[in-house]
Amino acid sequence: MTKELELSDIQGNIVRAYGKANYPKARYFFLHIENAESGRKFVESVRHKITTAARWDKSAEMEGMPGGMPRVTLNIAFTFYGLLALQLPTRTLQAMPPEFIDGMKARAYILGDADPELSKEELESSATQYESSPLSDGKVATPNWLKKWDPIWRDSTRLGSNAVHVWMSMNAKTKVKMENGHPLLTEEPVGELEQQTQWLRDLCAEVGGVRIMTLDGKKGGPEYQEGSAIFEEIEGLGAVPLPHEHFGFADGIGDPVFEGQHKPEDEKRLVLGRGKWMTPEKGWEPLATGEFILGHPDESQELPPTAPPDEFTRNGSFLVYRKLHENVSSFRKYLADQAKIFAQIMSVSEDEAKDTLGAKMIGRWHDGIPLSKAPTYEAWQATRKKWNMSGGSRKDDFLGMLDYRGSSDISDFKFGDDIRGYKCPNGAHLRRTNTRDYLDPLNQPDSDNPNATTQLNKRRRILRRGLPYGEPRLGAGTDDTDQGVNFMVVCANIFRQFEFVQQQWIQYGLDFNQGNNTCPILGNHSIHKRHTIPVDPATGKPPYICDNLPQFVETRGGDYFFIPSMTALRMMAMGIVDPT
User: Fold this and answer.
1) Is the whole-model pTM more than 0.70?
2) Rounded Cα–Cα distance for residues 370 and 126 (Å)
3) In this structure, what are the phi and psi dihedrals at residue 572, rounded to the nearest 5 degrees?
4) Which residue, 256, 504, 550, 570, shows the most beta carbons closer than 10 Å to its own?
5) In terms of DSSP bridges, do strands 224-228 and 25-33 run parallel, antiparallel, or are they unpaired?
6) Mapping DSSP to helix (H, G, I), strand (E, B) and coil, where does residue 329 land?
7) Rounded to an integer, what distance in angstroms lies between the CA atom of residue 429 and that of residue 425?
8) Do 538 and 19 meet the contact criterion of CB atoms below 8 Å apart?
9) CA 308, CA 89: separation in Å to the nearest integer?
10) Burial of 115 per CB tally in 10 Å (0-12, 13-18, 19+)
């Protein structure tokens, strides 16, 4: 029986990844609440414009009727200190998860954002000094691990006028232009995005006591963090959004599917490789709703405890926002330098070596084809040809890529048949972030297990949200260019899901027989700088070790947020959150 969710009570960004739903532009706002009364008035005005998870009627959209896809979405979430600023009851606040109360900055040691050579005590000491000890010139002592963060996050304290209280997102469609009677896509957001931005400015001025914070902490500075897909101009289509990040790899492919998220007819297709693997007879099934939405049973078949009252947290979730800077020049240079060595050892061309090395670090080829399905360069090229992704016009290749992304082939695979990592290295980014059946307790290190299941992995899944930021074209920019990914995670338990994956699987390697090696892409490489690529001995070639990995990705800030349901927003606006 298909689970029915109260979609009209759930915020839309929990259930939908807007970037995949043709919203390639975004603005992320961060606000400060100066007094509770103004904050409640603000929430009351905002809640009527929130985009919910209610299913969109595409025919209604075409006819301009209610119920269709909006041209701009709007969603909202709050930090712990944002809830405190709204004067929620102490009992409710005290029952919030400890990691949410701490906030992301205080968890820097766990997440690998802080200098790994610092002890936990030294880290906590530096953070305490930072938050409580103004210098004589009015500035604040900044630990070394914070210096690269954007001012809005670097200078944010738990209490005071520079605390981030509210996250708001606006995702927008782009304009279509007519050329010789044919519609062409553009990368210019629809005008409603700026209209809604002005509405937010006007609302803050009207209610008073709520203000949009600037990213640089200066008056007149940038009011929002922009988000934008990377675009490519393709003849006959216009400026099309690509499903890639700035390193050039397809992103956001393996998002989990949970009960009630999709219509039954869509779920059967989308769940393949994105749910939980049961048995060969049952196949893939959707994950429990409670893994991502509060107030519903999770994979333990229990209702996890939540902050009272139940109706306040039910149908809500938690959001992790992280601004991740990508050192594009360093990534390209490293692949080019290593490709010269790899090409000689493996007797291949440097171009093939570069593509292969990138895939062996990510776990997919740059177009999204998984190594588990196409482990060699020749198999990759054959798959591209099969799906009409190469050999034709750029338009035909792009449309073939879209067809492939819509198929189950891109996600329907497991790792139990590749325990040694000959196809996809055990330490690759893909295997770390979604272990699938690799960690089945019955797996043996030297033999494959076709009957492996995902029973351990299913409690560690996260929903990916967000868009890239920075240069809107692939290949543009350097390490100094402000570009990367607005990385967002939606999950019901930040500690069990996001923090576990980030600490145990991204920053450590023991579960993957990688020793202290971290993720080759997201890992902290200040101490451990290696990535091992196993090679089948039958090929006669040796394993390859990528050594001296530079830091490819750096955190620029972020925090933890609570995404309330529509019911909770009404309760917050009215000041009637009653834990008794």
Assistant:
1) yes
2) 42
3) -65, -40
4) 256
5) antiparallel
6) helix
7) 9
8) no
9) 10
10) middle
